[in-house]
């Protein structure tokens, strides 16, 4: 008896996904093979392209926070705290300039990502894995077998703090990953201090909760796409960590959902993008917003970026730390909206759920 069409289609899709994964060459391998039409596993449904930017939204830009005046005087410091508060409560995104990380370090980090992905497939294969518990993971689409459609993106992820896997890091980008991570960790402590003060808390509150203790680098490569109108570089999602610091090159492609429309976040030289993650929205009881964003595919490339995630999800701990709405931020009039969870539980749920476009926070929300 012939299998139902839906079952047959699903079976064919699984075979195509497995065949793609077995190459261990990623999307870049497809491009190097000369593909002119993207495989069906990368074709996104039409609703993935809804809410595209209108003319009004193209005039919008996310706030820019100048950290250069942070220690100038108390008034300048407070102005920066106020800007961070407004951006975190309204947009969930802001850009930082004069952040203390030299432009040469930023540029070399992007060069390091290029160097890794430009290696021969046979060399990169040694890092290719679906075991997300490893400290160094190279693959294409962590949710390849669970997502509605694959994204036009390859990734190298490395757990850089508190214990970086120094000898395991790929040689083409090892030194700059270490140097860049050390700089980002310093910046993270500054940012968590500003966010703490923006909440009316002691400057060390979020750092004392270990929000800045763990750091993961996700180095993304978005190869040029022959049919960018049919796929996405990254599906719409929120970040499931406490905070993200993003370094992107000048090609662009990042968009955030603002007032129900997708708007571009054009790259500015020397600037880093900061966005609130799910766990920080949970801690602040919805005061700070973890906002949906995505990356569009482009005919030019490869585009590269480095997403620096502050989280404790991969840190081994005999007694995992519980995170729930901060007690100083809840009251009888503003009761807790989420149950307590561990970063490990949130991370595990997020990976199992994949980038399906639905907020993971709903799973932890109190009825």
- What's the CATH first level? Mainly Beta
Count of helical regions: 10
Total domain count: 1
Rg over CA atoms, rounded to whole Å, is 20 Å
Low-pLDDT segments, ≥5 res = 1-7
Fraction of residues in β-strands: 15-25%
SSE succession = HHHEHEHHEEHHEEEEEEHEEEEH
CATH topology: Jelly Rolls
Walk across the major sheet and give the strand order. Answer: 1-2-10-7-12-5-4-3
Report helical residue fraction: 25-40%
Keywords: Iron, Metal-binding, Oxidoreductase, Vitamin C
GO molecular function: dioxygenase activity; L-ascorbic acid binding; metal ion binding; oxidoreductase activity, acting on paired donors, with incorporation or reduction of molecular oxygen
Domain Fe2OG dioxygenase: 213-313
InterPro entries: DIOX_N (IPR026992), IPNS-like_FE2OG_OXY (IPR044861), IPNS-like_sf (IPR027443), Oxoglu/Fe-dep_dioxygenase_dom (IPR005123)
Provide a compact summary of the structure.
Helix content is 31%, strand content 19%.
């Amino acid at each position: 008896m012939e299998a139902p069409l839906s079952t047959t289609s699903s079976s064919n899709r699984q075979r195509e996904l497995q065949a793609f994964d077995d190459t261990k060459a990623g999307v870049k391998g497809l491009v190097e093979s000369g593909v002119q039409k993207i495989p069906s596993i990368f074709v996104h449904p039409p609703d993935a392209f809804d809410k595209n930017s209108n003319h009004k939204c193209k005039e919008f830009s996310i706030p820019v926070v100048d950290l250069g005046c942070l220690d100038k005087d108390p008034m300048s410091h407070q102005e920066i705290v106020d800007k961070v508060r407004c951006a975190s409560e309204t947009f969930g995104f802001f850009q930082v300039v004069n952040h203390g990380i030299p432009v040469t370090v930023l540029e070399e980090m992007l060069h390091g990502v290029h160097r890794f992905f430009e290696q021969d497939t046979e060399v990169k294969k040694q890092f290719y894995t679906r075991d997300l518990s490893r400290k160094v993971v190279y693959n294409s689409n962590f949710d390849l077998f669970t997502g509605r459609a694959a994204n036009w993106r390859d990734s190298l992820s490395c757990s850089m703090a508190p214990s970086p896997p120094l000898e395991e890091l790929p040689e083409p980008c090892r030194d700059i990953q270490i140097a860049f991570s050390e700089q980002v960790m310093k910046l993270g402590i500054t940012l968590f201090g500003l966010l703490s003060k923006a909440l009316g808390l002691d400057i060390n509150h979020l750092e004392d909760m270990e929000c800045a203790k763990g750091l993961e680098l996700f180095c993304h490569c978005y190869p040029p796409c022959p049919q960018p109108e049919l796929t996405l570089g990254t599906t719409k999602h929120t970040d499931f960590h406490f905070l993200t610091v993003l370094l992107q090159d000048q090609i662009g492609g990042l968009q955030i959902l603002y007032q129900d429309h997708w708007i571009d976040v054009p790259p500015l030289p020397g600037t880093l993008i900061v966005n609130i993650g799910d766990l920080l929205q949970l801690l602040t009881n919805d005061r700070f917003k973890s906002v949906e964003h995505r990356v569009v595919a482009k005919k030019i490339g490869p585009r590269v970026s480095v997403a620096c995630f502050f989280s404790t999800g991969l840190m081994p701990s005999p007694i995992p730390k519980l995170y729930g709405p901060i007690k100083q931020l809840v009251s009888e009039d503003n009761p807790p909206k989420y149950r307590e969870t561990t970063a490990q539980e949130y991370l595990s749920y997020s990976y199992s759920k994949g980038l399906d476009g639905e907020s993971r926070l709903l799973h932890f929300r109190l009825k």
